[in-house]
From TrEMBL, chains A, B, C, D:
ATP binds at G91, R157, G158, G182, D183, G184, S185. This is ATP-dependent 6-phosphofructokinase. SUPFAM superfamilies: Phosphofructokinase (SSF53784). Its main location: cytoplasm. It is found in: Cytoplasm. Catalyzes the phosphorylation of D-fructose 6-phosphate, the first committing step of glycolysis. Uses inorganic phosphate (PPi) as phosphoryl donor instead of ATP like common ATP-dependent phosphofructokinases (ATP-PFKs), which renders the reaction reversible, and can thus function both in glycolysis and gluconeogenesis. Consistently, PPi-PFK can replace the enzymes of both the forward (ATP-PFK) and reverse (fructose-bisphosphatase (FBPase)) reactions. It comes from Haloferula luteola.
Length: 444, 444, 444, 444
């Protein structure tokens, strides 16, 4: 846990100014007695472990805490005069269309905002050079979006010039920009936020963090993640059927997970049909008594089949180095560990004169392009609702997240300062080792 | 929130005695350096809201906190000499088979327990009068259970004589009994726990709380709930198609929710296709300007169709009283609000000479008899793993739960002291009102 | 089989007149060499059983045969001057939106028709008294319809005055009307056809037969049927889980099937979990040695649980007579056999002092309001394609169907002359008896 | 159509001998009056097109016809003395477990057979050198198989020595062997049949034809095919979401289809989201005005995104020749057209300086390892039922199939004499061209 590295100060949310407009009518009626509203002073602890807490208290340090999300009784923007805009950036993730839908619905119905712009194709849509015109979004247009995977607005990778984009926001008359995107995009949003603050143009920049890998910090989970690993389970179950259908059958599945193995772990736990999980956070050997190949061989001897799940970022130290490659967002492209393992496993058993049948499955984009499953839909709805509440209240430079089961506001800078990982000594990895029966250590 | 009503003392977990056996081999290897183990002193706060916390600190009160779940380095039972038993009680719930499977797998593989009994048909199976013989469970038998809804062990409602059941446990040589069941069953388990303590027979009673209605206290959620409301979404989406397919079409769906409307709320949020949600926690009128019928009429005028979701326990004050009825577990049986509403709505529009087409859908048991969805499978696995860890560590009279995103131990007495409800002033209900656009108040 | 009751003459399709326009460009290119086109002379036998055939040949009778569907090289209507209209009638059925979509797409892209009207709310939309205005349909509007159950155009039951409707078609300038509906609606379409022929107005009336019960004559199957019984399987599997989850558990599922038991049979075969199938075509007793109750009792004795599937039209002779009721289309409303059986079964075992747990499931509209499954989508696409081909070729008074695996043209009068039933001596029922193990005869 | 190449003689089914045992009791009761039984004389025409028929009749040729499947009143084998065996060969296909289940259930319950052997790992299981022991199958063991993809018995590719395998069958006392497998395996079964006939050992060899590609001749369709293309639709829909989610987005999906494009065609028709379908039966150019690349470019210009589905056997003439490779069954291994196209498309647009985003999806084994969908389950059940009826009646050297919607017996030699293809001039391909809007010809 990196709790200790965050100070209370760093968790403070920026407000554009005094909240002088009343929250629209029906919301007030809903809790006329004053209950049910959160103020900016409603906060929960970042760390609630009693021993750590007592240590902090003993030292007299202020306890890091987080602002709770929720509608504010008074808001900063005058809804009928407000223009909000939405942009989706980076790779697809289940739930993008849900977030778009709810931002539109919530702005329109809960606040009465009438000008809602859909920026097309990610940050490209804020750079006039690309010639994309924003869509004027209405409830009618977005009503059925969640039936479809992908993003209605289109997306793109990479960032554009900050000043050019802020110019564009000003020219369009945008008051609040909702940026749905991963850590690269949120860093871009941070730049937008800082430029807007510098100019004092009163534009709010609100992020909805997106990462199919579930690896953003200080979040219970990221939207789309549950749907994605559920989709991944189909591939695992298929691999299991293939493995059982042949003598010495091996099913090998490569799953998303560039820097973290959450999807691989969850798919293994959910199916109960995986014997080896390989993730970026835990090194393993191929060769040697403790290595994967020998362990796999033992498994085949005992049970006649095996299923392996490998996250795309696992075992990169094993793959022969080649020229460094970056994608458009600047992420390092990985060597294909799946194909590499397939060939090495086949080669090993050939050298052992042992006939095996290995089936390799790479579900690739099929796990991220599906519509969100019901629980994720509810989760997206809440993230989007609270993003609108936060934006209307005049908050900026922040993202909406869930922490310890409550929706909260986090400064953008905090969530992009690192990536969450599977802790090799934590309970998730332990549960994987328990559930798979794989050796706790596969490294000499 | 009822945090304030719980004292630290009430949250203390009972231990059978000194933990004198080392946790089995591979577990120690997993974190040989000592990281990754929880002790009984690892606790998290029950309430982490900073203002409440400061108030408590100011008063000098001890802060209520909860014991974290997890394997203990030393355990109470000698695994190879231990006999564990599993019983499932009450109505079906998605995930029962997952919990059974993991308790068996975890006991067998992670601890080396070799005698695992499956008690058949709920508490009946502990009463010799019924003649059910326990099954000797093996990994092979339970491996594929999660493909199936229901419970492999069978279930029944109602309780049996505590002494008779404890006699039976002693006769069978059971050391740990895992009770998977709802609040009635956990109250029964509490009786077993107390009788065992009285006798000093060293039997551990560990509960895995089950409630499809998601209404147990001090839990983030209950297992099976996500799967259940996802299944309910099919009924809602069907009702929506029916409503849109006819002039003045009305889709009316009755969903589970005896005392709490969580399923109804979540199904409405997840589909985005519901216009009225009726739950036990929020009273409503039928007649009058503010009543449901007039609101429904207005909706039809404006949009030509409507979808209503009603929890089975909603509007009980509206249904003509009849003789009190109880089910075998002593739960009050409700009048059928769905059929009642169907008839009243049809009657109203007939009296208005307005032609409507109402389609009534009661998915009933179909939402609870499905296999668990992937996320629920992972959740069940964790509950079951931690139940086994707790039992082997010699804990008793407790249930495993998740609180603020961590798995914890809670005394049985605490979780059965009341039922969780949808807070009419809280964020869940607000999100429903926002998402449906229904009147915040439908009562004069 | 009622083959013998149909003469060749009755199978002749009416043509509006000479086909003097060439089929649009790309279609000609597709098979420039003349292969791949069907002429009106391409026909297949109605009956291909060799013995029956030889008998007919011996008698010198002309063999009844059916016109094959498909594009014609020359067509009757000039596409660019043609207006087509679509109407959906009666209850929902999976695939309605697929048929609408493909009629629009095929008319627009394959023929170049530019005026495509969507008649709203069934035949009501052709009666000006209701004030529904037709929608001008475009490919863009219908592109995504198959993601949704129901009908985009809305529907209604019952017929309207034929002359009024033909007046309306003429006033709208409609050249081809596609009627998607059940046998009541196709009888209405026959009236429209005859009135148009009488007036000589050159309007083509083409039917796409719809019946979720799969009970139209001379058709391999009806669209939506596969999807519907697949949806029904969920209810059956749920009932099975409920039945197995209790001592003497009984799962009772009521499925659609007013006059025929196809859905009940198929759901039983597909799940392999049903012990008794009750359909309208096969009478059964409740009481007596051979009756259902005794058979059910024996099943419980032997296996401890049972699953019963009952079609809504089964056992109507058992239910106490009450006043005859008709729905708006004039179909007789059935007594609720499901509720009746539930109560009788519970009563029987109570009288026997045998504790049983019966769970009753009525999935009702949920099996007809789902989107079409992939195979049904292809089937709907083909029906719709061939409907457009037929209409453009100037055919009228006919429906598109599939017979012995080929798409064909059938006169409307032929398909509405009776309803297809499960043959109690045929292979489908035999397979049900074999698969369930139920007594071949349950009547004294 | 290759009807004309088959003579009536070639369609005759071999019978082992006189049917002297009565079909077991309950079956007789089922149709005591004699209706509902088929005799060997019940046949349907292979070709029922009236014009072709009249031509044949005019020439005085006997009309090729096919024997109908179904139980026979008298049977060849004495059920209680009969041993049946089941073997599954070749690649996985949805429904294998359904066929196994029903062969066991039908043999056991409908005929009273008590010795049912499951041969493990395909033909390997009949070669003692491999040391696989047959499983003794019971209803209990196979009851739940259809919940799982794959084959419970395991499978393998390739054939073993015919004499060795017949020796093994004799040694095991097998009377009827059911071979579930593709055309290679059915050729192997033909050899077994001929060897058994030569030896006069009275062993019946019955085939259940399996091909996920739907390419066996004289069959309406093959089992598992519907399920497989439905699974493929997920990949296509995912590709569509990816394509729409990016500027100039291209989704490229490779699907199974070694020699025939049925899966690719059906997936395109079912989704309505594909713009180009490439199959082995229809050649296409990459370059040139009419080629794929130019057509794709035009599509992007007009619509901004495109989806391409390519069958694995398509465009093999375009891929640079390399050394011939065969799999263990002797099937030619194809070059990977998917990867080839991906690279060529990316290269083309790079050379055009046009930024595109291509996402490549290869669902590979995931579409064949799923459990069968409900309609396929019913289909498998019927194939298996009729296989058992045929075997018990003493038929041999034949497969069970469906033709023109009826279940029939076909000599093994007939179905393995070629592979069914998509007819480039037929209605299936026409429907694809109509539905995708792709150029009818993409070859210069």
């Amino acid at each position: 846990m990196s709790h200790s590295t965050i100070s209370l100060e760093e968790l403070v949310i920026t407000n554009l100014g005094e909240k002088k407009f009343p929250s629209p009518g029906w919301q007030r009626n809903f809790s006329a007695d004053g209950t049910g509203w959160h103020t900016d002073g409603d906060r929960i602890l970042l760390c609630d472990h009693t021993a750590e807490l007592e240590a902090s208290l003993a030292k007299g340090e202020p306890l890091p805490s987080i602002e709770l999300a929720g509608p504010r009784k008074e808001i900063f923007f005058n809804p009928t005069q407000t223009c909000v805009a939405i942009v989706t950036c980076g790779g697809l993730c289940p739930g993008l269309n849900d977030v778009i839908r709810t931002i539109v619905m919530q702005s329109y119905y809960a606040y009465g905002v009438r000008r809602i712009l859909g920026i097309q194709y990610g940050y490209e849509g804020l750079d006039p050079a690309y010639g994309h015109r924003p869509l004027e979004l209405t409830p009618e247009m977005v009503m059925n979006l969640p039936y479809f995977g992908g993003t209605f607005l289109g997306s793109s990778r990479g960032r554009k010039d900050t000043k050019v984009m802020v110019n564009r926001l000003e020219a369009l008359g945008v008051n609040i920009l909702f940026v749905i995107g991963g850590d690269g995009s949120q860093r871009g949003a941070t730049d937008l936020f800082e430029e807007c603050q510098l100019r004092g143009n009163g534009i709010s920049i609100i992020g909805v963090p997106k990462t199919i890998d579930n690896d953003l910090m200080f979040m219970d989970r990221s939207f789309g993640y549950q749907t994605a690993f559920a989709a991944a389970c189909h591939a695992v179950t298929g691999a299991h059927a293939e493995a059982r259908g042949a003598r010495n059958g091996i099913g090998l599945v490569k799953l998303m997970g560039r820097d973290s193995g959450f999807i691989a772990c969850s798919a293994a736990l959910a199916t109960g049909e995986v014997n080896f999980v390989l993730i970026p956070e835990v090194d393993f050997d191929l060769e040697g008594e403790q290595g994967l190949l020998a362990a796999l061989d033992r498994r085949l001897e005992q049970r006649g089949h095996a299923v392996i799940v490998v996250a795309e970022g696992a075992g990169q130290d094993l793959v022969p180095a080649s020229q460094a490659r970056l994608d458009a967002s600047g992420n390092k492209l990985h060597e294909d560990i799946g194909v590499f393992l397939r060939d090495r496993i086949n080669g090993y058993f050939k050298s052992q004169d042992k006939e095996v049948t290995l089936k390799y499955i790479d579900p690739s984009y099929t796990i991220r392009s599906v519509p969100a499953a019901p629980e994720d839909r509810v989760f997206c709805l809440n993230l989007a609702r609270h993003a609108v509440h936060a934006g209307m209240a005049g908050k900026t430079g922040m993202v909406v997240a869930r922490w310890h089961q409550r929706f909260v506001h986090l400064p953008m800078k905090v969530v992009t300062r690192g990536r969450r990982k599977v802790d090799p000594h934590g309970d998730l990895w332990r549960s994987v080792v328990e559930a798979t029966g794989q050796p706790a250590v596969m490294k000499g």
